[in-house]
Design a protein that fits this description.
Blueprint: H1 3-34, E1 52-54, E2 57-59, E3 64-71, E4 76-83, E5 90-92, E6 115-123, E7 130-141, E8 144-157, E9 168-170, H2 183-189, E10 197-201, E11 209-212, E12 224-227, E13 243-251, E14 261-269, E15 276-279, H3 283-291, E16 297-304, E17 307-314, E18 326-330, E19 333-337, E20 343-347, E21 352-355, E22 357-360, E23 366-369, H4 371-374, E24 378-382, E25 387-391, E26 394-397, H5 399-406, H6 415-452
Parallel strand pairs: 4-9, 5-8, 14-23, 15-22
Antiparallel strand pairs: 1-11, 2-3, 3-4, 3-7, 6-7, 7-8, 10-11, 10-24, 12-25, 13-14, 13-18, 15-23, 16-17, 17-22, 18-19, 19-26, 20-21, 24-25
Amino acid sequence: MTNTQIFFFKLFLINLILAYATSTVFELAYKRLRYTQALDISTNEDRFLEAKELHVLHEDSKDYLVIDLSLGTPSQTFSVQIDTTTPVTWVPSATGKNLLNITATFNSTLSASAEDTNTTLEIEDEDGDVEGFVTYDNIDIQGLKAENFPFVQVTEYDENFQDHSEGKLGLGYRNEFGGDFSILQKLKDSGVIKNKIFALSETKDSNGKLFIGDFPENTTQGYTFCNLTTSVGLDDFYRDSWICELSFYFIGEAQNFSQANKIQGRVIFDSAYSYISAPKKYLSNFKKSYLHNNSAIDCYEVTQYDEVSHICSLKQNATLDDVNSISFLLDGYSYTIDAENLFEKVRDEDNKYEFLIKFYDENDDVWSFGYPFFSQFLVVFDMESSRIGLKGGKVNDFSAEWKKWDENEGYLITDVQMKYLIYGASILGAIIFVFIIFIIIHSIRRRRLEEHGPLIEDGH
Protein backbone atom coordinates (compact mmCIF):
# COMPACT_ATOMS: atom_id res chain seq x y z
CA MET A 1 0.00 0.00 0.00
CA THR A 2 1.43 3.37 -1.05
CA ASN A 3 1.86 6.33 1.27
CA THR A 4 -1.09 8.04 -0.45
CA GLN A 5 -3.33 5.04 0.12
CA ILE A 6 -2.26 4.82 3.76
CA PHE A 7 -3.04 8.50 4.21
CA PHE A 8 -6.53 8.20 2.78
CA PHE A 9 -7.20 5.01 4.69
CA LYS A 10 -6.32 6.82 7.94
CA LEU A 11 -8.56 9.70 6.84
CA PHE A 12 -11.36 7.22 6.25
CA LEU A 13 -10.99 5.73 9.75
CA ILE A 14 -10.93 9.18 11.36
CA ASN A 15 -14.12 10.21 9.55
CA LEU A 16 -15.79 6.94 10.48
CA ILE A 17 -15.02 7.53 14.16
CA LEU A 18 -16.22 11.13 13.92
CA ALA A 19 -19.49 10.05 12.26
CA TYR A 20 -20.19 7.54 15.03
CA ALA A 21 -19.23 10.03 17.76
CA THR A 22 -21.45 12.72 16.24
CA SER A 23 -24.49 10.45 16.11
CA THR A 24 -23.82 9.32 19.68
CA VAL A 25 -23.48 12.90 20.95
CA PHE A 26 -26.76 13.87 19.26
CA GLU A 27 -28.58 10.95 20.81
CA LEU A 28 -27.11 11.51 24.28
CA ALA A 29 -28.07 15.19 24.08
CA TYR A 30 -31.62 14.17 23.28
CA LYS A 31 -31.71 11.77 26.22
CA ARG A 32 -30.20 14.35 28.59
CA LEU A 33 -32.92 16.80 27.60
CA ARG A 34 -35.61 14.20 28.02
CA TYR A 35 -34.40 13.03 31.43
CA THR A 36 -33.71 16.47 32.90
CA GLN A 37 -36.36 15.64 35.45
CA ALA A 38 -35.63 12.32 37.13
CA LEU A 39 -38.40 9.79 36.91
CA ASP A 40 -40.26 9.33 40.17
CA ILE A 41 -42.82 6.72 39.24
CA SER A 42 -42.52 4.04 41.88
CA THR A 43 -42.82 5.84 45.20
CA ASN A 44 -44.49 8.92 46.54
CA GLU A 45 -42.58 10.55 49.38
CA ASP A 46 -43.92 14.09 49.04
CA ARG A 47 -45.56 15.82 51.94
CA PHE A 48 -49.23 16.02 51.13
CA LEU A 49 -51.38 18.87 52.36
CA GLU A 50 -55.12 19.10 52.60
CA ALA A 51 -56.94 19.64 49.34
CA LYS A 52 -60.32 21.38 49.05
CA GLU A 53 -63.02 19.14 47.60
CA LEU A 54 -65.46 21.07 45.43
CA HIS A 55 -68.97 20.14 44.38
CA VAL A 56 -69.24 19.26 40.69
CA LEU A 57 -71.94 17.75 38.47
CA HIS A 58 -71.76 15.31 35.59
CA GLU A 59 -73.19 16.61 32.32
CA ASP A 60 -75.32 13.70 31.08
CA SER A 61 -75.62 14.73 27.45
CA LYS A 62 -71.82 14.83 27.14
CA ASP A 63 -69.38 13.09 29.43
CA TYR A 64 -67.72 15.99 31.25
CA LEU A 65 -68.00 17.82 34.56
CA VAL A 66 -69.42 21.27 35.32
CA ILE A 67 -68.91 23.47 38.37
CA ASP A 68 -70.51 26.66 39.67
CA LEU A 69 -68.32 29.75 39.99
CA SER A 70 -69.14 33.36 40.76
CA LEU A 71 -67.72 36.56 39.33
CA GLY A 72 -68.11 40.20 40.34
CA THR A 73 -69.53 42.26 43.22
CA PRO A 74 -72.30 41.36 43.83
CA SER A 75 -71.63 37.94 42.40
CA GLN A 76 -72.94 36.62 39.11
CA THR A 77 -72.97 32.80 39.01
CA PHE A 78 -72.21 30.51 36.07
CA SER A 79 -72.17 26.75 35.53
CA VAL A 80 -68.92 26.23 33.63
CA GLN A 81 -67.16 23.23 32.17
CA ILE A 82 -63.96 21.95 33.83
CA ASP A 83 -61.42 21.91 30.99
CA THR A 84 -57.79 20.80 31.39
CA THR A 85 -56.86 21.88 27.84
CA THR A 86 -58.15 25.46 27.96
CA PRO A 87 -55.71 28.11 29.23
CA VAL A 88 -58.24 30.81 30.08
CA THR A 89 -61.44 30.96 32.14
CA TRP A 90 -64.31 32.47 30.15
CA VAL A 91 -68.04 33.18 30.43
CA PRO A 92 -70.60 34.65 27.98
CA SER A 93 -70.83 38.44 27.88
CA ALA A 94 -74.01 40.47 28.03
CA THR A 95 -72.58 42.49 25.12
CA GLY A 96 -72.25 39.40 22.90
CA LYS A 97 -73.72 39.14 19.42
CA ASN A 98 -73.97 35.39 18.94
CA LEU A 99 -74.84 33.89 22.32
CA LEU A 100 -76.62 30.70 21.23
CA ASN A 101 -79.75 31.54 23.29
CA ILE A 102 -77.72 31.71 26.51
CA THR A 103 -79.50 33.34 29.45
CA ALA A 104 -76.64 33.54 31.99
CA THR A 105 -74.27 36.29 30.84
CA PHE A 106 -71.78 38.52 32.64
CA ASN A 107 -72.61 42.21 32.84
CA SER A 108 -69.71 44.45 33.88
CA THR A 109 -71.99 47.37 34.63
CA LEU A 110 -73.60 45.36 37.45
CA SER A 111 -70.28 44.65 39.19
CA ALA A 112 -68.64 47.32 41.35
CA SER A 113 -65.26 45.54 41.11
CA ALA A 114 -65.16 44.86 37.36
CA GLU A 115 -62.47 46.42 35.18
CA ASP A 116 -62.87 45.87 31.44
CA THR A 117 -59.91 46.14 29.05
CA ASN A 118 -59.45 46.66 25.33
CA THR A 119 -57.51 43.38 25.08
CA THR A 120 -59.23 40.91 22.77
CA LEU A 121 -58.47 37.18 22.89
CA GLU A 122 -59.44 34.29 20.64
CA ILE A 123 -59.46 30.94 22.43
CA GLU A 124 -59.03 28.04 20.03
CA ASP A 125 -60.65 24.68 20.69
CA GLU A 126 -61.35 21.52 18.69
CA ASP A 127 -65.07 21.88 19.40
CA GLY A 128 -65.24 25.51 18.30
CA ASP A 129 -63.41 28.77 18.95
CA VAL A 130 -64.65 31.69 21.04
CA GLU A 131 -63.61 35.34 21.08
CA GLY A 132 -64.04 38.15 23.57
CA PHE A 133 -62.33 40.78 25.71
CA VAL A 134 -60.42 40.53 28.99
CA THR A 135 -62.02 41.67 32.24
CA TYR A 136 -60.49 41.80 35.74
CA ASP A 137 -62.83 41.03 38.62
CA ASN A 138 -63.27 39.02 41.82
CA ILE A 139 -63.74 35.26 41.43
CA ASP A 140 -65.23 32.79 43.90
CA ILE A 141 -65.08 29.04 43.25
CA GLN A 142 -67.14 27.61 46.09
CA GLY A 143 -65.22 29.51 48.77
CA LEU A 144 -61.84 29.71 46.98
CA LYS A 145 -61.64 33.46 46.37
CA ALA A 146 -59.24 35.77 44.55
CA GLU A 147 -59.40 39.42 43.59
CA ASN A 148 -58.52 41.06 40.30
CA PHE A 149 -58.60 37.81 38.32
CA PRO A 150 -58.43 38.09 34.50
CA PHE A 151 -61.06 36.18 32.53
CA VAL A 152 -62.60 36.57 29.09
CA GLN A 153 -66.11 37.83 28.38
CA VAL A 154 -67.02 35.95 25.23
CA THR A 155 -68.85 38.04 22.68
CA GLU A 156 -68.74 35.69 19.71
CA TYR A 157 -68.85 31.92 19.12
CA ASP A 158 -67.47 30.12 16.09
CA GLU A 159 -70.23 29.07 13.69
CA ASN A 160 -69.22 25.42 14.21
CA PHE A 161 -69.21 25.69 18.01
CA GLN A 162 -70.31 22.37 19.56
CA ASP A 163 -69.03 22.72 23.13
CA HIS A 164 -70.35 23.80 26.53
CA SER A 165 -71.63 27.29 25.76
CA GLU A 166 -72.04 28.61 29.32
CA GLY A 167 -68.34 29.02 29.98
CA LYS A 168 -65.19 27.18 31.04
CA LEU A 169 -62.89 26.95 34.02
CA GLY A 170 -59.49 26.96 32.33
CA LEU A 171 -57.12 24.50 34.02
CA GLY A 172 -54.59 23.99 31.22
CA TYR A 173 -50.92 23.43 32.11
CA ARG A 174 -49.31 25.91 29.76
CA ASN A 175 -50.75 29.30 28.93
CA GLU A 176 -49.91 31.16 25.77
CA PHE A 177 -51.50 34.31 27.18
CA GLY A 178 -49.32 34.43 30.29
CA GLY A 179 -49.33 33.17 33.87
CA ASP A 180 -51.78 35.81 35.11
CA PHE A 181 -54.62 33.82 33.56
CA SER A 182 -53.79 30.72 35.63
CA ILE A 183 -56.47 30.24 38.28
CA LEU A 184 -54.12 27.97 40.28
CA GLN A 185 -51.39 30.61 40.30
CA LYS A 186 -53.89 33.31 41.32
CA LEU A 187 -55.30 31.23 44.18
CA LYS A 188 -51.80 30.42 45.43
CA ASP A 189 -50.71 34.07 45.24
CA SER A 190 -53.84 34.98 47.22
CA GLY A 191 -52.92 32.48 49.95
CA VAL A 192 -56.04 30.39 49.37
CA ILE A 193 -54.17 27.21 48.38
CA LYS A 194 -50.61 26.11 49.16
CA ASN A 195 -49.81 24.22 45.98
CA LYS A 196 -50.70 24.53 42.31
CA ILE A 197 -52.22 21.07 42.23
CA PHE A 198 -55.69 19.75 41.48
CA ALA A 199 -57.20 16.29 41.11
CA LEU A 200 -60.11 15.06 39.06
CA SER A 201 -62.20 11.92 38.66
CA GLU A 202 -65.37 11.44 36.64
CA THR A 203 -68.10 8.96 37.47
CA LYS A 204 -71.76 9.33 36.61
CA ASP A 205 -73.01 7.70 39.79
CA SER A 206 -71.16 10.07 42.12
CA ASN A 207 -71.03 13.00 39.69
CA GLY A 208 -67.24 13.04 39.85
CA LYS A 209 -64.90 14.97 42.11
CA LEU A 210 -62.60 17.98 41.84
CA PHE A 211 -59.93 18.73 44.45
CA ILE A 212 -57.90 21.95 44.41
CA GLY A 213 -54.78 22.78 46.43
CA ASP A 214 -52.98 19.44 46.69
CA PHE A 215 -53.33 15.68 46.41
CA PRO A 216 -56.70 14.58 47.83
CA GLU A 217 -56.75 14.11 51.58
CA ASN A 218 -56.38 10.53 52.86
CA THR A 219 -55.26 9.31 49.42
CA THR A 220 -51.54 10.03 49.66
CA GLN A 221 -50.28 6.54 48.80
CA GLY A 222 -50.42 4.29 45.77
CA TYR A 223 -49.78 6.86 43.05
CA THR A 224 -47.75 6.32 39.92
CA PHE A 225 -46.60 9.23 37.79
CA CYS A 226 -45.86 10.33 34.27
CA ASN A 227 -43.64 13.37 33.72
CA LEU A 228 -44.92 16.13 31.46
CA THR A 229 -43.31 16.45 28.07
CA THR A 230 -43.08 19.13 25.38
CA SER A 231 -45.95 20.54 23.34
CA VAL A 232 -43.60 21.65 20.54
CA GLY A 233 -44.98 20.92 17.09
CA LEU A 234 -48.61 20.46 18.18
CA ASP A 235 -51.63 22.32 16.85
CA ASP A 236 -52.77 25.44 18.68
CA PHE A 237 -55.62 23.72 20.53
CA TYR A 238 -53.18 21.13 21.97
CA ARG A 239 -50.31 23.33 23.14
CA ASP A 240 -51.72 24.37 26.53
CA SER A 241 -52.59 20.81 27.58
CA TRP A 242 -51.16 18.40 30.12
CA ILE A 243 -49.08 16.06 27.95
CA CYS A 244 -47.19 12.83 28.73
CA GLU A 245 -45.36 10.42 26.48
CA LEU A 246 -47.36 7.38 25.39
CA SER A 247 -45.22 4.47 24.23
CA PHE A 248 -47.39 1.34 23.96
CA TYR A 249 -50.87 -0.09 24.30
CA PHE A 250 -51.93 -3.62 25.19
CA ILE A 251 -55.02 -5.63 24.35
CA GLY A 252 -56.56 -6.69 27.62
CA GLU A 253 -54.80 -6.28 30.94
CA ALA A 254 -51.06 -6.18 30.28
CA GLN A 255 -49.22 -9.33 31.35
CA ASN A 256 -45.98 -9.14 29.37
CA PHE A 257 -44.10 -6.20 27.89
CA SER A 258 -43.51 -8.12 24.65
CA GLN A 259 -47.29 -8.15 24.04
CA ALA A 260 -47.30 -4.38 23.58
CA ASN A 261 -48.23 -2.50 20.40
CA LYS A 262 -45.80 0.36 19.79
CA ILE A 263 -47.08 3.95 19.75
CA GLN A 264 -44.15 6.27 20.54
CA GLY A 265 -46.40 9.33 20.62
CA ARG A 266 -47.88 11.79 23.10
CA VAL A 267 -51.14 11.80 25.06
CA ILE A 268 -53.26 14.74 26.19
CA PHE A 269 -55.40 14.49 29.34
CA ASP A 270 -58.64 16.22 28.38
CA SER A 271 -61.30 16.44 31.10
CA ALA A 272 -63.78 18.00 28.65
CA TYR A 273 -63.63 15.17 26.12
CA SER A 274 -66.10 12.27 25.96
CA TYR A 275 -63.83 9.82 24.15
CA ILE A 276 -60.33 8.50 23.71
CA SER A 277 -58.99 9.58 20.35
CA ALA A 278 -56.12 8.18 18.31
CA PRO A 279 -54.49 9.00 14.98
CA LYS A 280 -55.95 7.06 12.07
CA LYS A 281 -52.56 5.50 11.28
CA TYR A 282 -53.07 3.16 14.25
CA LEU A 283 -56.46 1.93 13.02
CA SER A 284 -55.06 -0.90 10.89
CA ASN A 285 -52.92 -2.23 13.73
CA PHE A 286 -55.81 -1.81 16.14
CA LYS A 287 -58.11 -3.84 13.94
CA LYS A 288 -55.57 -6.63 13.65
CA SER A 289 -54.90 -6.82 17.37
CA TYR A 290 -58.16 -5.78 19.04
CA LEU A 291 -60.88 -6.72 16.58
CA HIS A 292 -59.19 -10.04 15.92
CA ASN A 293 -59.85 -10.87 19.56
CA ASN A 294 -63.26 -9.21 19.66
CA SER A 295 -65.48 -10.42 16.86
CA ALA A 296 -68.42 -8.73 18.60
CA ILE A 297 -67.33 -5.29 17.30
CA ASP A 298 -67.88 -3.53 13.97
CA CYS A 299 -65.91 -0.44 12.84
CA TYR A 300 -67.04 2.04 10.21
CA GLU A 301 -66.34 5.54 8.92
CA VAL A 302 -68.48 8.52 9.92
CA THR A 303 -68.44 12.26 9.23
CA GLN A 304 -69.30 14.67 12.04
CA TYR A 305 -68.97 18.46 11.77
CA ASP A 306 -66.98 18.05 8.52
CA GLU A 307 -64.52 15.76 10.30
CA VAL A 308 -63.99 12.16 9.22
CA SER A 309 -63.37 9.54 11.89
CA HIS A 310 -63.65 5.80 12.41
CA ILE A 311 -65.82 4.56 15.25
CA CYS A 312 -66.91 1.11 16.38
CA SER A 313 -69.92 -0.43 18.08
CA LEU A 314 -71.01 -3.75 19.53
CA LYS A 315 -72.77 -6.08 17.15
CA GLN A 316 -76.39 -6.86 17.87
CA ASN A 317 -76.88 -9.35 20.72
CA ALA A 318 -73.23 -8.96 21.84
CA THR A 319 -72.47 -7.96 25.44
CA LEU A 320 -69.58 -6.25 27.20
CA ASP A 321 -68.46 -9.68 28.42
CA ASP A 322 -67.51 -10.45 24.82
CA VAL A 323 -64.89 -7.69 24.52
CA ASN A 324 -61.46 -7.05 26.00
CA SER A 325 -60.13 -4.18 28.05
CA ILE A 326 -57.28 -1.97 26.76
CA SER A 327 -54.13 -0.95 28.63
CA PHE A 328 -51.89 2.05 27.92
CA LEU A 329 -48.22 2.39 28.92
CA LEU A 330 -47.12 5.74 30.41
CA ASP A 331 -43.55 6.08 31.75
CA GLY A 332 -43.28 2.36 32.43
CA TYR A 333 -46.69 1.69 33.98
CA SER A 334 -49.68 0.21 32.16
CA TYR A 335 -53.17 1.50 32.98
CA THR A 336 -56.10 -0.75 32.10
CA ILE A 337 -59.45 0.64 31.00
CA ASP A 338 -62.19 -1.94 31.48
CA ALA A 339 -64.61 -2.76 28.69
CA GLU A 340 -67.52 -1.25 30.65
CA ASN A 341 -65.74 2.13 30.55
CA LEU A 342 -64.90 1.79 26.86
CA PHE A 343 -68.52 1.63 25.70
CA GLU A 344 -71.46 4.00 26.03
CA LYS A 345 -75.01 2.75 25.71
CA VAL A 346 -76.76 4.91 23.11
CA ARG A 347 -80.04 3.01 22.63
CA ASP A 348 -81.67 0.77 25.20
CA GLU A 349 -84.26 -0.76 22.89
CA ASP A 350 -81.72 -2.60 20.70
CA ASN A 351 -78.84 -2.85 23.19
CA LYS A 352 -76.77 -0.43 21.08
CA TYR A 353 -73.32 0.42 22.47
CA GLU A 354 -70.83 2.90 21.01
CA PHE A 355 -67.11 2.33 21.38
CA LEU A 356 -65.50 5.36 23.07
CA ILE A 357 -62.30 5.31 21.01
CA LYS A 358 -62.26 7.32 17.80
CA PHE A 359 -59.60 7.32 15.08
CA TYR A 360 -59.05 10.67 13.39
CA ASP A 361 -57.03 11.91 10.45
CA GLU A 362 -54.35 13.45 12.68
CA ASN A 363 -51.12 14.98 11.40
CA ASP A 364 -49.57 14.80 14.86
CA ASP A 365 -48.90 11.56 16.70
CA VAL A 366 -51.24 12.62 19.50
CA TRP A 367 -53.81 10.69 21.50
CA SER A 368 -56.43 12.23 23.81
CA PHE A 369 -57.61 10.65 27.06
CA GLY A 370 -61.07 11.83 28.00
CA TYR A 371 -63.98 10.44 30.00
CA PRO A 372 -63.13 6.69 29.68
CA PHE A 373 -59.77 7.29 31.36
CA PHE A 374 -61.02 9.72 34.04
CA SER A 375 -63.83 7.34 34.92
CA GLN A 376 -61.25 4.62 35.66
CA PHE A 377 -58.53 6.61 37.46
CA LEU A 378 -58.13 9.51 39.85
CA VAL A 379 -55.90 11.95 37.93
CA VAL A 380 -53.76 14.47 39.84
CA PHE A 381 -52.43 17.45 37.88
CA ASP A 382 -49.26 18.58 39.65
CA MET A 383 -48.10 21.93 38.28
CA GLU A 384 -45.50 22.21 41.06
CA SER A 385 -43.53 19.16 39.88
CA SER A 386 -44.61 19.11 36.21
CA ARG A 387 -46.14 15.66 36.37
CA ILE A 388 -49.41 13.77 36.52
CA GLY A 389 -50.25 11.34 39.33
CA LEU A 390 -52.56 8.39 38.69
CA LYS A 391 -54.37 6.16 41.14
CA GLY A 392 -57.06 3.50 40.97
CA GLY A 393 -57.96 0.79 38.51
CA LYS A 394 -55.59 -1.90 37.29
CA VAL A 395 -51.94 -0.87 37.09
CA ASN A 396 -48.97 -3.05 36.10
CA ASP A 397 -45.34 -2.16 36.69
CA PHE A 398 -43.13 -2.44 33.59
CA SER A 399 -40.84 0.43 34.64
CA ALA A 400 -37.59 -1.58 34.71
CA GLU A 401 -38.16 -3.21 31.34
CA TRP A 402 -39.56 0.00 29.82
CA LYS A 403 -36.58 2.06 30.99
CA LYS A 404 -34.20 -0.49 29.48
CA TRP A 405 -36.07 -0.25 26.19
CA ASP A 406 -36.30 3.53 26.41
CA GLU A 407 -32.53 3.82 26.86
CA ASN A 408 -32.07 1.78 23.68
CA GLU A 409 -30.74 -1.29 25.46
CA GLY A 410 -33.83 -3.38 24.77
CA TYR A 411 -35.03 -5.38 21.81
CA LEU A 412 -36.73 -2.47 20.00
CA ILE A 413 -35.22 0.42 18.04
CA THR A 414 -36.78 3.76 18.91
CA ASP A 415 -37.61 6.40 16.31
CA VAL A 416 -34.88 8.65 17.74
CA GLN A 417 -32.30 5.90 17.63
CA MET A 418 -33.28 5.07 14.06
CA LYS A 419 -32.95 8.73 13.09
CA TYR A 420 -29.39 8.98 14.32
CA LEU A 421 -28.51 5.62 12.84
CA ILE A 422 -29.64 7.02 9.50
CA TYR A 423 -27.55 10.17 10.07
CA GLY A 424 -24.47 8.11 10.87
CA ALA A 425 -25.07 5.72 7.97
CA SER A 426 -25.50 8.64 5.55
CA ILE A 427 -22.20 10.22 6.63
CA LEU A 428 -20.45 6.85 6.49
CA GLY A 429 -21.93 6.14 3.04
CA ALA A 430 -20.67 9.48 1.71
CA ILE A 431 -17.18 8.80 3.06
CA ILE A 432 -17.11 5.30 1.55
CA PHE A 433 -18.31 6.67 -1.78
CA VAL A 434 -15.50 9.25 -1.90
CA PHE A 435 -12.97 6.62 -0.86
CA ILE A 436 -14.11 4.21 -3.61
CA ILE A 437 -13.90 6.96 -6.24
CA PHE A 438 -10.38 7.76 -5.08
CA ILE A 439 -9.34 4.08 -5.27
CA ILE A 440 -10.78 3.75 -8.79
CA ILE A 441 -9.01 6.88 -10.05
CA HIS A 442 -5.76 5.86 -8.36
CA SER A 443 -5.96 2.33 -9.86
CA ILE A 444 -6.58 3.67 -13.37
CA ARG A 445 -3.61 6.01 -13.06
CA ARG A 446 -1.31 3.19 -11.87
CA ARG A 447 -2.44 0.91 -14.71
CA ARG A 448 -1.64 3.57 -17.30
CA LEU A 449 1.75 4.17 -15.74
CA GLU A 450 2.51 0.43 -15.84
CA GLU A 451 1.43 0.15 -19.49
CA HIS A 452 3.02 3.27 -20.94
CA GLY A 453 5.60 4.36 -18.42
CA PRO A 454 5.90 7.89 -17.13
CA LEU A 455 5.26 10.70 -19.57
CA ILE A 456 8.46 12.73 -20.09
CA GLU A 457 8.00 16.17 -21.50
CA ASP A 458 10.55 17.52 -23.98
CA GLY A 459 12.78 20.16 -22.66
CA HIS A 460 12.55 22.16 -25.95
